[in-house]
Amino acid sequence: MQELGRTLAGLLRPGDLVLLTGELGAGKTTLTRGLGEGLGVRGAVTSPTFVIARVHPSLSGGPALVHVDAYRLGGGLDEMEDLDLDVSLPESVVVVEWGDGKVEELSDDRLHVVIARAVGHEEVLDDVREVSVRGIGARWSAPDALAALQGVSAR
Ligand SMILES: Nc1ncnc2c1ncn2[C@@H]1O[C@H](COP(=O)(O)OP(=O)(O)OP(=O)(O)O)[C@@H](O)[C@H]1O
Ligand SMILES: [Mg+2]
Description:
Elements: H1 2-9, E1 17-21, H2 28-39, E2 53-56, E3 64-69, H3 77-82, E4 92-97, E5 110-119, E6 124-136
Parallel strand pairs: 1-4, 1-5, 3-4
Antiparallel strand pairs: 2-3, 5-6
């Protein structure tokens, strides 16, 4: 999942919005950690549950990573704006855990990443994840926009 995050980082530009969906412990934060590595941002990406959002500035003049955990964000976008993040969202890459139905208005263009645990016939395959990535809006409309993700190996 971390490697997928690193690869995904290579596709992202300032202003991009990524929504991460998946049950508790699916790997949303783990993917975001890889994304932070790929973007070259400052600070360890950890679960922001108790702060709702954390800004990781770029170490290399690229976009900052804004990592949001919307789990307790009841009011959606208004509340998100109230967070008063000391950063410009159009100049950042914004990644939101548990953001479905809450932050879509932030951008017409967004990536939806859905993470599922793989289930085997007789056992739950604890470490295996199945990930689908869907691009919405003109930003992701090119047929090969997400092609780079195809080659990420599963571990
Ligand atoms: N293939 C995998 N990808 C991601 N995490 C994995 C994988 N296999 C095992 N894990 C473990 O599953 C856990 C995933 O935790 P993580 O915090 O990334 O999930 P999360 O989706 O952010 O959860 P939450 O909903 O609580 O925010 C970690 O403990 C990680 O080590
Ligand atoms: Mg998390």
